[in-house]
Amino acid sequence: MTADRPAPRGRALRGENRRAEILQAAMSVIAERGYRGASLSAVAERVGMTQQGLLHYFPTREALLIAVLEARDEWDTGGTKDTARAWPLEMWTFLVDYNAMRRGVVQTFSALLGESVTDNQPAREYFAERYGMVRERAAATLRHEFGERLPGGLTPEEAAPLVVAVLDGMQFQWLLDPDNADMSAAFRSLVALLGRERG
């Protein structure tokens, strides 16, 4: 290998760094302009690239937005996909509070989620896999907190989809009517309800 030709690993590292830079720029654009304003051209301009150059890393706008959500998930989970590891309920509450400060990313998640239920959508696989992982993590958390049965009688596996449904359902309500839909308060109410004995 000649001295003036970079090693393959060096090129790969530069590519990874460039990809990370694009994702960071995309997150900034989403935060400032929302889901609709996060165009490929706006992100390319932010990183000093042409739109054609950006397409080398992300062939479609949807691919870029899914990558943003994957990066968000990785940050939120500390990079671990070990769904058997229980999070404290306080950690879930923290993430709900944090999401309330990043409307653009929540909007992107919700918009892509809505589109993913139709056939042949690239985002479908991402969301199907993600929901499986989130349900498993929620079940692990509930088992850690309550054991094999919650006070109301449900198993952690039975209660986990309900927790996830409240989380995402409240996101939609909050996006539509933030003054009257408090995600954080609703999640705290759910936690209190889960821990309540049957009368």
Describe this structure in words.
With 199 residues, the chain is mainly alpha-helical. The protein is 70% helix and 0% strand. The chain has 9 helices and no strands. The chain has helices spanning 8-37, 40-46, 51-55, 61-76, 89-99, 103-116, 123-146, 156-176, 183-194. The radius of gyration is 20 Å and the shape is elongated. The N and C termini lie far apart (76 Å). The model has no long low-confidence stretch (mean pLDDT 87).
* Tertiary shape: elongated
**Helical amount among residues, as a percent range?**
over 70%
Task: Provide mean pLDDT, rounded.
Answer: 87
Helix- and strand-based class? mainly alpha
**What's the gyration radius in Å?**
20 Å
Sheet of most strands: none
Separation of the first and last Cα atoms: 76 Å
Kindly state the number of beta strands. Answer: 0
Proportion in β-strands:
under 5%
Entry summary:
With 199 residues, this protein is mainly α.
Task: Sum up the structure in keywords.
single chain; 199 residues; mainly alpha
Any chance you could write out the topology, listing elements then pairs?
Elements: H1 8-37, H2 40-46, H3 51-55, H4 61-76, H5 89-99, H6 103-116, H7 123-146, H8 156-176, H9 183-194
Helix pairs in contact: 1-2, 1-4, 1-6, 4-6, 5-9, 6-7, 6-8, 7-8, 8-9
